[in-house]
Amino acid sequence: MNDLFTWAALGSLAGASAATLLATNVIGGLIGPSGDKLRKWIAIAIALLLSYISAAFADEVGGEKWVIAFFNALVIFSAALGVNQFPPGNRQATPTQVADGREPRVFRSWV
Question: What is the pLDDT of residues 27-40, one digit of tens each?
């Protein structure tokens, strides 16, 4: 159980991205359908929070670590959302097939 999320994992790109995606989906799910439009803002807020917390614990003493933390937050946000989702005009519809009259089960983007 201690190997799922650790402080070291949250300090990595993969861990911070996974935590951002997970927290965004849970919070958006708790808000309900009205939270779908807020998910992008929730994701950037969580990415900024994780990035600035990591910067606060960093050993560097210069002020540039806060600027770097901002850009790291953008990387975390992009990784959590999937950079292949941008821009919306480049998205191609994935054909779905309906079997036996049931609704197709697909993952829908919330971006």
Answer: 888 888 877 778 88
